[in-house]
Amino acid sequence: RIQVIGTYRCLPSKQQGFSSCTFRTIIICNNIKCMNVDDHPTLSASDISKIKRFSQQKKGNIFEALARSLAPSIHGHEYIKKAVLCLLLGGVEKILENGTRLRGDINIMLIGDPSTAKSQVLRYVLNSAPRAIATTGRGTSGVGLTAAITTDKDSGERRLEAGAMVLADRGIVCIDEFDKMSDIDRTAIHEVMEQGRVTISKAGIHAKLNARCSVLAAANPVYGRYDEYKNPMDNIGMQDSLLSRFDLLFVVLDVMDPEHDARIAEFVLRMHRYRNPGEQDGEPIRIDGDVDNLATYEDKEEEEEMEVYVKHDNLLHGQKKNTQKLCSLQFLRKYIHVAKNMSPVLTREAAECISNEYAKLRTTDNLGNKSKTLPITARALETLIRLSTAHAKARMSKTVEKKDAESAVELVNFAYFKETKRKTKRKKDREEDDSDMEEDDEEDPFRFDEKDRKRPRTTTSDTAGDQETMETEETEDRSQETAAQPADPTPPVEGVSEEKLEAFRKFIHEIFSTGHNIEQVPLDKILAEVNQAGSRPDPFDEDEVMECINRMMEQNQVYLDMGTRAVFLI
């Protein structure tokens, strides 16, 4: 980016002595100034010493302290703030000898209910990152994100105009309302998110443009609100080829909890009541403008001394002084700018930890026991490496240690696996049911049971012999009723081991995945094929199969309809 000051001229275009009706425009410049788009902060010797002292402190966790200081106006979202900190720091980009590029940019998607501060997180990144470009899904096309071919009005020649992701090279692209984009436009960013470049072959123009940027996207579920009783992949409704390019995907839910809502209300009200020191009542808001500034070079004012921590304010931070201090925004920008230039190296312990956890993730995905938000592919291994490297950068460390890998694994496990909740009654309904049961247990003087109608009312004058005869008749009636009841065809079996249950769960997953869009499987087919899946020393009998199905129904994984004798996969 440059700033040009000069004289605007129109020149006629003559060819072989004849002049056409079009004029070409030029600028005869007399001053050119290079403008720094990144707006890197200026560092002094005292700033470097404060940053070094902060990174070497032994009290508390540095990574958590930095993540807690991000977006202090947003309540909660601890893991999302940690992921955003990793996105700002980034991993280490590597270019191998054969020309292969391993990206170090981290891509994150936030999906969930409305009014959960997804757009506010994007807005904070826009204001804090040195180079960030914002766009929305509804007003964005595929060529607007990558590159477009336009025609010059003066010369009529074709020219190439860079899109948002090319302009954000070495920066961050924030895409809001990502779900409103069409599938064709979303497909256009596949190459950018993985290869870090845009290849154009249109209108006789063949070019490769660098677009090495991180993507921070926010979207709403398919149904507008997140349905907790459906699979996360059904709520997201996007292609696996696109989702696998995101390192982390967070499902943000609007949980209805009275205590949680009260804390959020108190936090938001404190934000609205806060006023800057020295602000008078009725003072108009001043809109700063550069109209009166006619100088070519601006005089840079001397910056005040950088404060590491924000001073505690009772109205803004609450009456109770929290022991966990928040870092100032100025310090965060300078600290991230310094830490981003680090290049940590993986140690053997961290590599072994990442390798073992990646194998566990693949095994869990193969068994199909948990609902996941992202497909677990080989890119998940690179995700663990990038997150571990970003965690090491936050500590200003030259090596990636085992604790960095464990922190990355914790972040990945939180973002990948979302268990589908089982439908439970509300607290009010449970209390009503309990009260109804208690009322049923109490003796109602106006309720006459069938036994009470048959049983004669006895008085104190009845003899003991009559009572004995009545008791014998009641016992005979109970024995006859017990004999008349049919036996349960599937008595509960308690002897099914966890290994056999896991094998049966894997067999159910395989039998549903063999066909396309199979929603139900007959119970007779399961009983016939369960022992044909493989030669096992202890085959399943019918009682064990029914017990396994019942236990899977308790975990809300399958549903058995006894009327049609069909098993449905939930």
Task: Describe what this molecule looks like in 3D.
This protein has 570 residues and is α/β, with parallel strands linked by helices. The protein has helices at 45-55, 62-69, 78-89, 118-128, 142-145, 164-167, 183-187, 190-195, 232-236, 240-243, 258-273, 314-317, 329-339, 348-367, 379-394, 402-416, 427-441, 450-454, 464-484, 498-514, 523-529, 542-554, and strands at 2-15, 18-34, 94-95, 101-102, 108-112, 132-136, 147-151, 158-162, 172-176, 197-202, 205-210, 214-219, 248-252, 345-346, 399-400, 520-522, 558-561, 566-569. It has a five-stranded parallel sheet. The chain has a three-stranded antiparallel sheet with strand order 16-18-17. Strands 1-2 form a two-stranded antiparallel sheet. Strand 7 (147-151) and strand 8 (158-162) form a beta hairpin. The longest helix has 21 residues, at 464-484.
In order across it, which strands form the biggest sheet?
6-9-12-5-13
Q: What composes the largest sheet? A: 5 strands, parallel
The number of helical elements comes to: 22
| C-alpha end-to-end distance | 55 Å
Extract low-pLDDT stretches.
419-426, 437-465, 481-493
Q: Provide the residue-averaged pLDDT.
A: 78
Shape: globular
> Care to count the β-strands?
18
Radius of gyration: 34 Å
What is the helical fraction, as a range of percent? Answer: 40-55%
Strand content: 15-25%
